[in-house]
Amino acid sequence: MMDTPSHDSDQTPAEEPKADPKDSPKVDTANPGKRKRLLLIFAAVLVVIAVLYFVYDALVLSKRVTTDNAYVAAETAQVMPLVSGQVIAVTVSNTQTVKRGQVLMRLDDADLQIAVAQAEADLAGAERRYGQTAATGDALQAQANARSADIGAARAQLLLAQGNLDRAQIDYQRRQALVAAGAVSGDEVTAATNALRTARANVAIAQAGIAQATATRASALEDRAANTALTRGTTRDNAPEVLAARAKLRQARLDLSRAVVRAPIDGVISQRNVQIGQRLAPGTAAMVIVPVDQLYVDANYKEGQLQHVRVGQHATLISDLHGDDVVYHGRVVGLAGGTGASSALIPAQNATGNWIKVVQRLPVRIALDPKELRDHPLRVGLSMDAEIDISGDR
Questions:
Q1: Residue 264 pLDDT exceeds 50
Q2: Residues forming a β-bridge with 106
Q3: Would you say 123 and 249 are in contact if contact means Cβ atoms under 8 Å apart?
Q4: Helix, strand or coil for residue 271?
């Protein structure tokens, strides 16, 4: 049996295919020490930033409280007539700047002029009545003096009548004594009797005259006293009736002056809602004057920010109108007496079972520098960013 020749020795081994460099795994040639240094630098930078922020917070942020919930406000002046009347002229319009005392509008004053004339007549009448009362007092005093003279005359008349009575009494007694002897006639006795009766009557009349004169004098003195009570301690200038009439005249003149409505303060006209021909009643709002040089800011801070806020602390403010280029400086002048929610028309019902706590805000009033307001004017309602320096309270 023939051996099959072996070709193992003669055959060349098959070549293995070459590996594609693209398919071979990448070998990381980065330096581990460099990566470690980069990580350490990054960590150090983070630490430095954290430290700087902590320092900034401790030195700056913790000493200031800020809010962007702040708005410009002002104590505006409501312009309204104090007397009723028809508008005959309006001299201003919205956005117009006015000065204190400037004429804003005029009302028809015809009725008011009539009232002034009537008050002047009433004053003149009161002064004349006072003069008449004073003159009447002098006349009553003269009458009292005349009644005193009448009393003297009546007394003299009584003395005369008393003397006539005595003489008639004597004549009557003499004739009565001669009647029995027949020395006098009956006619003489009758005449003596009549004379005696007449003398007695005259005495009675004289006595009545004295009583009447005394009563008349007493009445005159009472009238004089009553008249004196009306004028005692007064003159034409300070008599009550004269003062009342003079006050009515001043009121009438004041009402007449109020027919011309003037600006109570300096500012800018806003909300003008009055037209010529319109009849206004006292207290009707005609327009509003905004004092743009006396503005302030109401900054609504969260309740957790107000622990160290005090009156008198300084503040810096930035308006959305002028941007960051204009910084206003102010001072805290007060904190509101209640939060905005407490003064709402429909207050929160916090006593219900589904209550959810809401952080409240309290308005803080900040007065602005008038010079800065003149240089960079603001208007009521504009938004502001407010920052209060509370470092002095810590």
A1: yes
A2: 89, 260
A3: yes
A4: coil
